[in-house]
Every structure is written in C-alpha cells, then in structure tokens.
UniProtKB/TrEMBL annotation, chains A, B:
SUPFAM superfamilies: Recombination protein RecR. CDD domains: TOPRIM_recR (cd01025). Belongs to the RecR family. Coiled coil: none annotated. Signal peptide: none annotated. This is Recombination protein RecR. Residues 80-174 form the Toprim domain. PANTHER family: RECOMBINATION PROTEIN RECR (PTHR30446:SF0). It comes from Pseudaestuariivita atlantica. GO terms for biological process: DNA recombination; DNA repair. A zinc finger (C4-type) spans 57-72. Gene3D superfamilies: 3.40.1360.10, RecR Domain 1. Keywords: DNA damage, DNA recombination, DNA repair, Metal-binding, Zinc, Zinc-finger.
C-alpha cells in the first residue's frame, strides 16, 4: 500500500464501524486528512473525551456521562410513567419525538430462544425491582413491533400485571404512510384498531 | 436530548463524514461506546497519531506520514513511468491492483470551467516540471472516464507532447461485466477498440 502503516490501520478500524465498509472508510479518512484543522483534530479530541467519560446510567442503562443519567436525575421526569425500550437508540428516538415526559428503562435487547437470551440476560429483574421500589403507576412497553419484541412485551406483561397499569405503543399506519406501500400486517393491525372519527 | 453534550457533539461531528448521516453517526457512536476498550479508545488514539503525522508528499501529493512518500522515496519505483491520477483515492485504487511499478502524480482534481478550476489550481505545472527534471519516459494518464477527466487528459497531452510518450488507460468492458448492464458509451468504446483474438 502507498499509505503508511498508521493510515492503513486507521482505515481498517474505521471500516469496523456500522454503516462503513472499506471503501467508505478510505473516503472518510481522506476527508479527515484534508480537513485536519476543522474536523480531524477536533474529532480525535472529542473521541478521547467521550471514550473517557461515557457510561451507562446505573438506573435505566441510558448512555450518558454520569453514573445517573440526566433523565433519571431530573425530578421533573418522575411523573410515574416508565417507558421500556429495547435499546439506547430507541430511547434517543423517543426523546427526539419530545412527547414523553416520564423516565425510561433500557432492556438491552429482546428475549430470544435462538440466541439463548433469557430474562436474566436482559434488565428485566431490574425493571421489576424499579416498579416495586419507585413510585410508578404506568409502564409503557415501547418495544419494536417484531416477533422477538412482542414476545418480550408479553413476558414483561406477565411479570408486572396486577402491580401497575401496562400499555403499549399503538400499531397502525405511520404518519405520511401510503396504504399501497404498507405490508399486510400493518394494514390488518390498523383496521383492527380503527377508531371513531 | 437524553445524551449529554459531548456525546451529541461527537454524533454531530461524525455525521459530517462522507458516507455517514445523523442516523448512522448515532449508531456508530453507540457502537463505539459499547466497544470502548477494543475499539473506541484505540480509534481515538490512532486518530490523534494520524492527525498529527499525515501530510501530502511534496513531490506527488500522495498522502503519507513523511514529506516524501514511500513511493517517491523508493528507488525501485523510478522506472521512468509516471501515472497521473485525479485524486489520492485513485492512486490507492491503482496500488491495490498492484500492477503498476512506477511513480504517481496526483493532480488534485480536474479542469472545470464551471467551478473555475484552471491548470494552476491543479498540479499541472508541477507535472510539467517533473517531466522536465525527472528521468521520465512514459506518462500514463489514468484519469476518470468522465467529461472533465477526459478534458483534463487532453490538456495535459497538449502540454507534454513531443517531450514524452503519452498513454491512457484502455476503455472497454470491465472484467465480470455483463453487456446487458453496460451503458451505450462503454459498448461503443469497447467495439471501437476491439482487438484480434
């Protein structure tokens, strides 16, 4: 290779990021080298800072820079609602929507017989514990509408019923969605859950 | 946002890389935080190293970690052939093919009337200079088969004719290519340049 060892190693490492392959990693590294002052050095500095400070919230497993994340630390968010999500990315998606004012609980995945992931591999015991000890009135199951997601939702519902109100996100036609492009399952769900105008 | 300021800033900066958008930058940052020891810290370290050491070769404009790149420094590569490419990425592509044993000259783009890029914006004067001072017998124009690339090739040919043998990459059907999927221009070029079996 013409590029020297460190540059090759950087390209190889960047290619391991999700969404990047060898070709886009090469493009990204060339882009960085060209924009050294504006982008490369600040990015390297920021990576060091975040690599040193990022941690999981001990309560909800959200990613932040302190042991208890901003949401768990905020008294305003203690409204009795607890939203259960599979992944930190799902939590961030909920926050971008900006409509949920309660707290979260990140499971860290879904139950999966194939991958041998049981309740103890996820943060389900911690969830049961939080429902017992925190002042929670409603648990909103915001799991993905996949088979594993729904299996997990049913398992959690079994664990928590009688203790708390359980709800789940509505299923139906997405905003801006065209019927012609929707799958049969979504149309069936939307029809079954139809509501009066 | 639930994630704290540094993490948000890192996502925003990563989203500026070519090939990444806001969504894939978020995925990449979450992936990095999860693989802190194996990936995140080593990547940040390597970025610092490369940001500090990467530079353009003063001779050919290849990217490396010294003022004169490995190819220009190697006596073995001084075989009288000089391959002219638009971009460092093209140089790397040629090197991956591993078949060219001479040296390179990176133009840094193509002539473009629309973008007001003339010969002096590119490294064409330096190319003429190298042909005069170095012991070069053949200049291989490996420019992209685009309108701008071919315009640039013709301009360089005008500057250098009589001084040196000029060649260009062959145009035709790519290896593994299916006629049905090729554009008309490629088929025309391949037919015009047909050769005896």
């Amino acid at each position: 290779m013409s590029s020297t060892r460190d540059i090759d190693a950087l390209i190889e490492m960047m290619a391991k990021l999700p969404g990047l392959g060898p070709r886009s990693a090469r493009r990204a590294v060339l882009h960085l080298i060209r924009k050294r002052a504006q982008l490369f050095t600040p990015l390297a500095d920021l990576m060091h800072t975040v690599a040193a400070s990022a941690r999981e919230c001990l309560n909800c497993a959200n990613v932040g820079t302190s042991d208890i994340c901003d949401i768990c630390a905020s008294e305003k968010r203690a409204n009795g609602q607890l939203c259960v999500v599979e992944d930190v990315a799902d939590l961030w998606a909920m926050e971008r929507a900006g409509v949920f004012k309660g707290r979260y609980h990140v499971l860290g995945g879904t139950l999966s017989a194939l991958d041998a992931i049981g309740p103890d591999e996820l943060r389900i015991p911690k969830l049961v514990d939080r429902v017992t000890t925190e002042d929670i009135t409603e648990v909103i199951l915001a799991l993905n509408a996949t088979v594993d997601g729904q299996t997990t939702a049913h398992y959690i519902a079994d664990q928590l019923e009688d203790r708390v109100t359980l709800t789940s996100l509505a299923q139906g036609v997405p905003i801006g969605g065209e019927l012609d492009y929707l799958d049969d399952g979504t149309i069936t769900a939307a029809l079954n859950a139809r509501k009066k105008l």
